Amino acid sequence: MSAHAQKKKNPIWDWLTTVDHKKIGILYLATGAFFFLLGGLEAILIRIQLLYPENNFVGAQTFNELLTMHGTTMIFLAAMPLVFGFFNAIVPLQIGARDVAFPFVNSLGYWLFTAGGIMLNLGWFLGGSPDAGWTGYAPLSTTSPGNGVDFYVLGLQISGIGTLIGGINFLVTIVNMRAPGMTFMRMPLFTWTTFITSGLILFAFPALTIGLALLMLDRLFGTQFFAAEAGGNPIIYEHLFWIFGHPEVYILILPAFGIFSEVIPVMAKKRLFGYSAMVFATALIGFLGFMVWVHHMFTVGLGPIANSIFAVATMLIAVPTGVKIFNWLFTMWGGKVVFTTANLWAVGFIPSFVLGGMTGVMLSVPPADYQYHDSYFVVAHFHYVIVGGVVFGLFAGMYYWWPKIFGRMLNETLGKIHFWLFFIGFHLTFFPQHFLGLMGMPRRVYTYLSGQELETANFVSSIGAFLMGVATIVMLWNIIQTSVAGKKASNDPWDARTLEWAISSPPPEYNFAQTPLVRGLDAFWLEKRAGNKTMTPAEPLDDIHMPDSSILPFMMAVGLFIAALSAIYSSWAIAIGGLVLTFAMMFLRSVIDYHGYHIHKEDLPSEGVDGK
Amino acid sequence: MRAEETMNKLPANPERATLEGKNKFLGFWFFLGGETVLFASLFGVYLGLRKATNGGVTSQELFELPLVFIATMLLLTSSLTAVFATMSLKSQNFKAMIGWLVITVILGFSFLGLEIYEFNHYVHEYEHTIRSSAWGSAFYTLVGTHGAHVLFGVSWITLLIVRNFGRGLNLYNAPKFYVAALYWHFVDVVWVFIFTVVYLMGKVG
């Protein structure tokens, strides 16, 4: 197993079998972007339905399916994989590693996520999509007719396993694979947030696994977990869902915080203000994130003591979050701030997210929450934190890291048009929804009556959604145009601070020809201040060990997909066949030895040695 | 001495001597952390539903502690033999390790046999099924998920024994044996909680 690395491989086979974290990152980003567009399309259909009172554009049942699939798609199939795309593409580079700890598992995680994403969307073609909301509360979900909710349950289950093993992978990667000298308190903030986020994934996703498994058992096998008439208790599902679901929102927002903490210092030409406070705040948010799930259930009737404890815990989270906001502001303070597109997203994020945070504190007060609950006020709140926080973060990361990942610059002018259209469209859509909610408009209802003063705000809201749609088209045009005729990116186009900018754009498959020596926080910046063009190596040039690519992860995902689809239609023989396929692939993985191969030092391009 | 020759063959702690081994070791501990949340969720569900018998048989009428006690002893003993296997791995005595693992697997299969007998007994003698009540659903799901873990564990360890029987211990397979033993201990620990929460509390709680 030696020199076969140089052989040209069939590109489709190459992408199906790759275990390279950079390629898997691109796969995650591309798949996530596809689902982001799909979820956006669903949002626009929702807003067309709500454009006028008593509109009948899609009807009640389709509206239920659209809002369920919009939420599920955006959270699980767009935001999660885009976050994982950046983890994969950037984190190993930031810590000076050649790959992740488990390249095979990394590939498996991607394919499981994709299989689950396809499964979730099959309902559109097979007689009805999930229609019980993205939360899938029992007994609405257990009694929903047709197969729609089955696609939800099994699709999320499969993609959830992929996410879980991805989380374990990044935990181990960050603990074990850091370059010499990179202590924990020298890690870039994005790596820190990846680390904390992966911990949240590890401890949150199993609760979802159980919640979904019980839903599946109730729906497909006639168990009684959530059937009140047989002694079951649907509140158990709400607990399980939110024990997962609240950490999930931090799983999404913490990586976005990490991206802002990379972009803002680079664009202000200053080191991050309060680095250790930022690390501590991230850890504290992660910890408190597990203590607050009942604030989604204030109106269930768990009693004043439970509600008070969870209300106080929820308000506490505002403290570390506030620390972060002020640290970003102080980082910019007195800096030489350049408003590149990436930085526009970061600067636009701060007021938008603070608004979402303020309504979050309002919602954390249980007596007030009884008024806001299930109204458009809640819809406005979580879109302010998810769009104003997560999506802005993902866009900032996209404009910032695009040159590193793809080797080409995005067009800044088109980027700024994208930002302003999206920013205005976003506030136009969701700001009026606060007032719709306070005026009593319930969420998840397919229409509203005329003559209740809800018309204007709904109309404005829909116009804003269309504006975000136009902005997205500008973004797509930017991507297409620059990938055809874009400027080639240099190694370090932003004069940045972290290790990923010390190597070529895009990086070679082994990342670092020689593992770099890290001498402090902002390792690459330190070397540049010391007059060095590249990182000082920590080891002599030697053969580089690379992992073997494998088709087994793809086949495992195919097996589970077949099993789940057949189980929905009660074709048990085929379902068992699918499981057998998956276990057979696990068997092969166990009995075949994978020793990897070496890239010989003589075969390395000279650029890796002398730098540029 | 023969024993000393084998001692010198591999570095100390062969399961963690390579980066791959270190990664597996740490990654598996993280995985067990996730498994802990998984079982904690199932225990929570069980505790919430353990009185919901839907007018059917109760846990006091159903459970027979002698049978469960034998099952517990089988599994606890298998955990001890897995410890001996790990100690043989550390002292790099391959034959002893395989021997202890074979005993572990036999004990594991015996446990599974008892569990299948138990479930069959409940279903046919007491009409206590996964559908008969919310408690039945919770019972079979919790205990069954544990049983599935036992089945996976014995299959995994058997596969490791068969695959590596002819080639001895090396730095590539030492982490595999080690994490399989870790998994086995975890499965045993879960059973200790099932014995307490499901069976003992079911009898007297």
Architecture blueprint of SSEs:
The complex is a heterodimer of chains A (612) and B (205).
Chain A: H1 11-17, H2 21-49, H3 60-94, H4 103-121, H5 140-143, H6 148-176, H7 189-221, H8 234-268, H9 275-288, H10 304-332, H11 341-363, H12 366-372, H13 376-406, H14 412-438, H15 455-485, H16 523-529, E1 544-546, H17 552-568, H18 572-591, E2 597-599, H19 607-610
Antiparallel strand pairs in A: 1-2
Helix pairs in contact in A: 2-3, 2-4, 2-15, 3-4, 3-6, 3-8, 3-13, 4-6, 4-17, 6-7, 6-17, 7-8, 7-9, 8-10, 8-11, 8-13, 9-10, 10-11, 11-13, 11-14, 13-14, 14-15, 17-18
Chain B: H1 2-9, H2 19-49, H3 59-62, H4 65-90, H5 94-126, H6 134-164, H7 174-204
In total, the number of domains of chain B comes to: 1
Mean pLDDT across every amino acid position of chain A: 95
Tell me the domain tally of chain A: 1
| Measured distance between first and last alpha carbons of chain A | 32 Å
The count of strands of chain A amounts to: 2
CATH topology of chain A: Cytochrome C Oxidase, Chain A
The CATH topology of chain B corresponds to Four Helix Bundle (Hemerythrin (Met), subunit A)
pLDDT < 50 stretches of chain A = 1-6, 608-612
Amino-to-carboxy terminus distance of chain B = 58 Å
Question: Which CATH-level-2 architecture of chain B?
Answer: Up-down Bundle
EC number (chain A): 7.1.1.9
Catalytic activity (chain A): 4 Fe(II)-[cytochrome c] + O2 + 8 H(+)(in) = 4 Fe(III)-[cytochrome c] + 2 H2O + 4 H(+)(out)
GO molecular function, one term (chain A): heme binding
Membrane topology (chain A): Multi-pass membrane protein
